[in-house]
């Protein structure tokens, strides 16, 4: 086919409408230092792009040709171009396509293309008018053009013109060509590795009478290549590593029928063959394995078509694998998001540790494990939760950073995957009896590169070794687990500080500042809903003297016991605080004064009946309390008013003899009390002596008892 006709035929393809095409042919008889390729035909869409492309590709045309595969390049100010090397009728050619650019324009590189000093802005309007594309789109165009060029290269001879040969595979006719073209179209529509392999191998068997076919593809980790029999061979043929793969796809053997030699036989002992033809599977510079045909002579024309099929198969496999990886990553992200929501609902450290270990073990199907956290001193480690072993026993173990497998991971911050603890040189230790398998995974728990602990898992359910995929999955989850541990610790620390800021450290009751805030909230609610609210002030009688006579430790204990009595006498909705010293305040929402008096009497009686430490040494042989009661709305409508009213009632109780309850009086009650007869003095019996003694009398009695 004339060179110009080849370009004209290619330009009929819709995908090449915006491209300039130039065909280069190798010169004959040129010296090694001269350029070996010269332009022999061109169809130019954009002169500027053609000129830039010429400067870029022509200098290294020989290098591009030697690579033997289509090349996609970015050059200049963001231009894209492709080069396809091929041989036709014994001559070497390079086809160059250019004329598109990427979305963004590199002005600095564009400046070097401008004339007279590099004014990039003079070229900018023209460059902006060019069609845009990305690398993947240009790569797909290059691959499609390569396939079309391969078809043009095939000799157009009839069956009668073919030489008499002993191998029908060399007699490639329209049927084989049609079968391959159909297979290429079918490959574009499949979405699984199995379907992709099935289409290619079915075509090879039917069109080229292949006797036996095998395929080698990378495993999940990409380090080894399991070989699978697809036609006429056992399914499992063994596994080869990267070095052995090169033995099959070396340039002197690839796409040629060669003897099944000793090295090949040693790499795949399960395969018994005389000859083989291996077609490398390669896409975007990545080795994907090979397709091998055994005991069938594949001659040049057939090899050409099979090579096209293998190339298309490799490209499709690459897309499928990348799509699967992307889907897997998306699924993992969604799963981690779901796990995040689950873990965010947990506010207890112990429950969090339990959940983290359970989730981690489920992710990789482990049956034993533990979580270890590094102590604050950074030297020791503590087991905080276990799976498959007793936690109490595990917590007794003495663990140190840098010692043992987990200690080494804690020190280095690097994850560790061990397939066999006895054979792995990094650990080299005898397996323990409690472990059913010899494989384990240790993952560091990190926060901003600081190791806070280690996650250990062992004994996969099927007792097989853990894989690199398990390690990657667990590493992703470990990052989430570390964040959740930090979050819970921060929350607990925050709650602890918040609790300290609103509670009394001795009694554990709310403090005066918090009481004011809560009482104002309850008052607002009572005003809105028309509810009663009552405040009770409780003050221990002669507590200073008790403290002096019995000691401060006894005094502290008496305050804590009093706080317990008050809490036990109230409802959960009620509020109790230590107001200061030996004075307490209880707030009873939705409670009238009459109802509160019953509660107050219960508190007074319980304090009087309680046996406090050292009270037998005081003159009255018991510790008592006085109480003042004030209610909303009759005694006040604000915090200050209610506190003032209850405080006055409390001191009236003190004045009347202590160990009693006095309710605050409204203004009308106070007026009526002026016309009432004075209250008779109580009889001074031993039982009510504390109610009539004033402070001086009590102190005098105390001193006499000590003397």
TrEMBL record:
Region Disordered: what ranges? 663-689
- The UniProt record lists the GGDEF domain at 531-666
User: Which residues are the signal sequence here?
Assistant: none
Name the EC number(s). Answer: 2.7.7.65
Q: What class of enzyme is it?
A: transferase
Output the InterPro entries linked to this UniProt entry. Diguanylate_Cyclase (IPR050469), GAF (IPR003018), GGDEF_dom (IPR000160)
Fetch the PROSITE patterns from UniProt: GGDEF
Highest taxon above the source species: Bacteria
Q: What is this protein called?
A: diguanylate cyclase
Q: Which organism is it from?
A: Geomonas diazotrophica
């Amino acid at each position: 086919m004339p060179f110009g006709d080849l370009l004209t035929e290619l330009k009929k393809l819709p995908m090449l409408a915006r491209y300039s095409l130039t065909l280069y042919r190798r010169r004959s008889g040129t010296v090694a230092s001269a350029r070996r390729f010269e332009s022999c035909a061109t169809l130019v869409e954009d002169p500027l792009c053609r000129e830039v492309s010429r400067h870029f590709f022509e200098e290294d045309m020989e290098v591009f040709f030697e690579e033997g595969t289509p090349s996609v390049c970015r050059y200049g100010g963001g231009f894209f171009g492709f080069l396809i090397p091929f041989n036709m009728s014994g001559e070497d050619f390079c086809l160059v396509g250019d004329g598109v650019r990427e979305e963004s324009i590199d002005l600095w590189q564009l400046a070097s293309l401008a004339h007279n000093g590099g004014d990039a802005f003079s070229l900018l309007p023209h460059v902006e008018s060019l069609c845009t594309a990305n690398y993947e789109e240009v790569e797909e165009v290059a691959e499609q053009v390569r396939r079309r060029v391969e078809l043009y290269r095939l000799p157009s001879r009839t069956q009668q013109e073919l030489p008499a040969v002993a191998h029908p595979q060399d007699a490639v006719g329209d049927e084989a060509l049609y079968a391959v073209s159909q297979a290429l179209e079918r490959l574009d529509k499949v979405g699984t590795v199995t379907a992709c392999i099935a289409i290619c191998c079915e075509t090879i068997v039917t069109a080229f009478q292949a006797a036996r076919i095998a395929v080698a593809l990378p495993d999940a980790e990409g380090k080894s290549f399991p070989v699978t029999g697809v036609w006429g061979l056992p399914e499992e043929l063994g596994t080869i590593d990267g070095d052995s793969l090169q033995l099959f796809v070396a340039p002197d053997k690839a796409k040629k029928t060669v003897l099944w030699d000793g090295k090949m036989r040693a790499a795949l002992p399960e395969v018994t063959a005389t000859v083989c033809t291996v077609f490398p599977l390669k896409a975007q510079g990545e080795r994907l394995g090979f397709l091998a045909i055994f005991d069938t002579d594949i001659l040049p024309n057939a090899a050409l078509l099979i090579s096209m099929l293998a190339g298309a198969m490799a490209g499709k496999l690459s897309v499928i694998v990348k799509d699967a990886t992307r889907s897997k990553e998306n699924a993992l992200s969604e799963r981690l998001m779901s796990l995040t929501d689950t873990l965010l609902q947990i506010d207890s450290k112990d429950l969090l540790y339990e959940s983290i270990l359970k989730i981690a073990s489920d992710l990789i199907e482990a049956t034993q494990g533990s979580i270890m956290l590094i102590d604050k001193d950074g030297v020791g480690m503590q087991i905080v939760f276990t799976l498959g072993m007793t936690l109490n026993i595990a917590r007794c173990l003495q663990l140190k950073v840098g010692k043992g497998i987990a200690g080494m991971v804690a020190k280095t911050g690097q994850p560790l995957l061990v397939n066999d603890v006895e054979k792995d040189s990094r650990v080299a230790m005898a397996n323990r009896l409690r472990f059913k398998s010899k494989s384990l995974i240790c993952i560091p728990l990190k926060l901003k590169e600081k190791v806070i602990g280690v996650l250990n898992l062992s004994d996969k359910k099927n007792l097989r070794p853990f894989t690199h995929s398990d390690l990657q999955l667990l590493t992703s989850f470990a990052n989430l687990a570390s964040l959740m541990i930090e979050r819970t610790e921060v929350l607990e620390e925050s709650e602890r500080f918040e609790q300290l800021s609103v509670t009394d450290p001795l009694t554990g009751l709310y403090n005066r500042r918090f009481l004011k805030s809560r009482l104002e909230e309850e008052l607002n609610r009572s005003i809105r809903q028309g509810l009663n609210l009552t405040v009770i002030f409780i003050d221990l009688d002669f507590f200073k003297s008790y403290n002096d006579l019995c000691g401060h430790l006894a005094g502290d204990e008496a305050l804590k016991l009093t706080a317990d009595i008050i809490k036990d006498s109230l409802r959960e909705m009620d509020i109790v605080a230590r107001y200061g010293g030996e004075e307490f305040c209880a707030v009873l929402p939705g409670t009238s004064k009459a109802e509160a008096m019953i509660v107050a009497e219960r508190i007074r009686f319980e304090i009087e009946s309680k046996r406090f430490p050292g009270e037998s040494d005081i003159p009255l042989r018991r510790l008592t309390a006085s109480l003042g009661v004030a209610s909303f709305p009759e005694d006040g409508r604000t915090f200050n008013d209610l506190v003032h009213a209850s405080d006055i009632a409390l001191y009236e109780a003190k004045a009347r003899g202590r160990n009693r309850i006095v309710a605050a009086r409204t203004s009308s009650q106070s007026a009526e009390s002026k016309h009432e007869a004075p209250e008779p003095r109580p009889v001074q019996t031993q039982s009510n002596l504390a109610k009539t003694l004033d402070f001086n009398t009590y102190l005098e009695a105390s001193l006499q008892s000590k003397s």
